[in-house]
Amino acid sequence: MTSIVKAAGARWRPALWGLIAALLLLPLIAMQFTREAAWDAADFAFAGVLLIGAGLIFELTAWWTKKRVWRLAIGAVLVLAVLLIWADAAVGVF
Fold it and tell me: Does the model's pTM come out above 0.90?
């Protein structure tokens, strides 16, 4: 049973960290083509702390919980929290 859990983890972990890296690279690439995306070092640091922190929290909770339903629920809550914080920081929605 533990080999099945390890095999499943081997699939989602690179995807999770690859997605985080891609999200951090998108503004950097966009800045090469348009003036609309104008991030400075503080913006990248904020986004990095937010996304990497959420990824680490998910890693820890996924390690702690073994049921897929709980992992999905925790992942959904983390995604919503990141979106809420990002929207508030970007335009002050709330």
Answer: no
